[in-house]
Amino acid sequence: MVLRKINLRDSQSSGPDLLVAGAGPAGLACAIAAAAQGLRVEVVDGRTPPIDKACGEGLMPDTLAALALLGIDERQLQPMGFPLRGIGFIKRGTAIEGYFPQGSGLGVRRTALHQLLLERAQGLGVAFHWNTTVTSIGGDALDTNRGTMRARWIAGADGPQSRIRKLCGLDRGSASRRRVALRQHFAIAPWTDLVEVHWAKGAQAYVTPVSEAEVCFVFIGSQRFSSLEQPLALFPELRERLGPASASGTPMGAVTMSRKLRRVTSGSVALVGDASGSVDAITGEGLALCFRQALALATALKAGDLAHYERAHAEILRLPRFMSRAMLLMDRHPLALAQTFRSFERRPRLFSRLLHVHIGAEPMRVLGRSGLIASLLCMLTP
Ligand SMILES: Cc1cc2nc3c(=O)[nH]c(=O)nc-3n(C[C@H](O)[C@H](O)[C@H](O)COP(=O)(O)OP(=O)(O)OC[C@H]3O[C@@H](n4cnc5c(N)ncnc54)[C@H](O)[C@@H]3O)c2cc1C
Asked: 70, 98, 200, 337: which could join 234 in a potential S-S bond, CB 3.0 to 4.6 Å?
């Protein structure tokens, strides 16, 4: 790949409309959406591509819809991934399946998605500064290890540990407890076209086929896993399924949590993606949030009104936060988990219905007030 080199002095004198800190999915989406609106955009990142990160690598249909709005359609994505028909919840001996209402999701390697987003941004004329780490921020200027850069607007897309969030005093808000994750790919042909979520006491394993010959495993629990053997011991059916299959690529750890901030903008700075708050990885909605926020931010920048983004951001996070809370309840309370499985077994369509609401294919009101309460009570009442 040819990296376009930009002289930092040039960018100081001309100054782009938008400077994006962080070239993860949120930063790239933000750059794409803003450049597509005609804004001049530059992006800095402390790393160099390909940028990998521990991720379940499952794109829900709503994530694919948001990607299409960014100019990346399914025809580009399909050849590099594995089509997914829905979600399976599995707990020793019991499997419940829910199907997407139309279209399908896609399992795709994180690095492949990153490359596609990067190419789209470069095609729109976005300039990139790699190995450029933000150290400080003041007004319209970002200090980096390679010099100071100025822009009319700054987007903080520097991930869950966002330095920009702290430096701008936007850290205040609420957060769920931290959970730790371990990702490992295996060279094995997929045995399912569902994202499987396996439940054990206080831990889950997410299994996402990402090609005809590879499956992505993510284990999440409250304690750090010291080796791959440790989480596999919690999920004997998965260990059996793997048989002699060998691990492909390197294992990668991560922390996940739900975080809600009081504000995501300050002056000419807006936070986007995990920097702006997150939902626990259990929802599989993190990337969809990044892409929707990026689209909303570009609209607000075009209108020169960050208050619009502040409102849109709160709305985008509302439903996934609700779903994340419900699922974390199942993680914390074995009784709630057992009862949820029992109620889904009794009412198989309920799981698909909730899945449709979860991915925004149907509004929450289709469950009706009584349906919603019934669903929650069903899940929680022993
Ligand atoms: C275990 C796990 C599984 C997940 N599974 C899924 C899933 O299956 N589906 C889904 O949709 N979502 C999933 N998610 C959520 C999704 O991965 C995140 O929402 C997404 O990665 C957030 O992207 P981001 O661009 O905001 O942050 P990041 O991906 O963290 O990118 C931040 C970027 O900023 C750069 N950066 C950081 N600090 C600086 C600095 N000071 N200066 C310059 N650059 C900096 C970093 O190098 C990085 O490139 C999962 C998350 C976890 C933890």
From this structure: 200
Nearest to 161 by CA among 255, 252, 253: 255
Q: Running along the chain, 382 residues long, what does each successive block of 10 average in pLDDT?
A: 36 78 98 98 97 96 96 93 96 91 92 97 98 93 96 97 97 93 97 96 95 97 91 95 93 95 97 97 94 98 96 94 86 87 85 87 69 55 40
- What is the Å distance from ligand 1's center to 160 Cα? 7
Tokens for 310?
A: 């502040």
User: How far does the centroid of ligand 1 lie from the alpha carbon of residue 257, in Å?
Assistant: 12
296: containing domain: 8-53+110-175+259-320
Cα 203 to ligand 1 centroid, rounded to whole Å: 21
Query: 309 with 360, same domain?
Result: no
In angstroms, the CA 133 to CA 188 distance is 38
Whether 54 and 181 have beta carbons less than 8 Å apart is answered as: yes
Q: Looking at the structure, tell me whether residues 218 and 89 fall in a common domain.
A: yes
Report the number of distinct structural domains present in the chain: 3
| 169 in the same domain as 264 | yes
> 91 and 185 share a domain?
yes
Q: Looking at the domain assignment, is residue 170 inside a domain?
A: yes
Residues 171 and 188 in one domain: no
Say if residues 102 and 134 touch (Cβ distance below 8 Å).
no
Is 146 a pocket residue for ligand 1 (Cβ < 6 Å)? no
Query: Which atom of ligand 1 is closest in space to residue 163's alpha carbon?
Result: 41
